[in-house]
Automatic annotation (TrEMBL):
Statement: the UniProt record of this protein carries the keyword Nucleotidyltransferase: no
Pfam families, per database record: MIF
Organism this protein belongs to: Actinidia chinensis var. chinensis (Chinese soft-hair kiwi)
InterPro entries linked: Macrophage_inhib_fac (IPR001398), Tautomerase/MIF_sf (IPR014347)
Keywords: Cytokine, Isomerase, Secreted
Cell compartment(s), UniProt: Secreted
Coiled-coil spans in chain: none
Keyword Secreted (UniProt): yes
Signal peptide: none
Listed GO CC annotations: extracellular space
PANTHER family: D-DOPACHROME DECARBOXYLASE, MACROPHAGE MIGRATION INHIBITORY FACTOR
GO MF term list: cytokine activity; dopachrome isomerase activity; phenylpyruvate tautomerase activity
Protein name per its UniProtKB record: L-dopachrome isomerase
């Protein structure tokens, strides 16, 4: 159920995308404490993004989860996802925002129902 949506203005080729998806899945699962089989990562590359008035490499993320989030966990997630984006796409961590949503079960659909 943890879902990480990532948007970046950097074009992402298939090999790099696969690496990011794998690394982010493992990181989110480990840090939140949920099985990898529950984690979804959505990566959108080459999206028009301006940050601080420039179109230099930048990214925005949203992480939605049913529980497992909080100040210390969010800090670890922010740092880890920023590291992945810096390593794989050369996006400086100062050009990355991430928003966290801790939602109730009834607000998350799966398999034609809600959790």
């Amino acid at each position: 159920m943890p879902t990480l949506n990532l948007f970046t203005n950097v074009p992402v080729d298939a090999v790099v995308a696969s690496d990011i998806l794998k690394d982010a899945t493992k990181a989110v699962a480990k840090i939140i404490g949920k099985p990898e089989s529950y984690v979804m990562i959505v990566l959108n590359g080459a999206v028009p993004v301006a940050f601080a008035g420039t179109e230099e490499p930048a990214a925005y993320g949203e992480l939605i989860s049913i529980g497992g989030l909080g100040p210390s966990v969010n800090g670890k997630l922010s740092s880890t996802i920023a590291d992945i984006l810096e390593t794989k796409l050369s996006i400086d961590s100062s050009r990355f925002y991430i928003k966290f949503y801790d939602v109730e079960r009834s607000f998350f659909g799966f398999n034609g129902s809600t959790f």
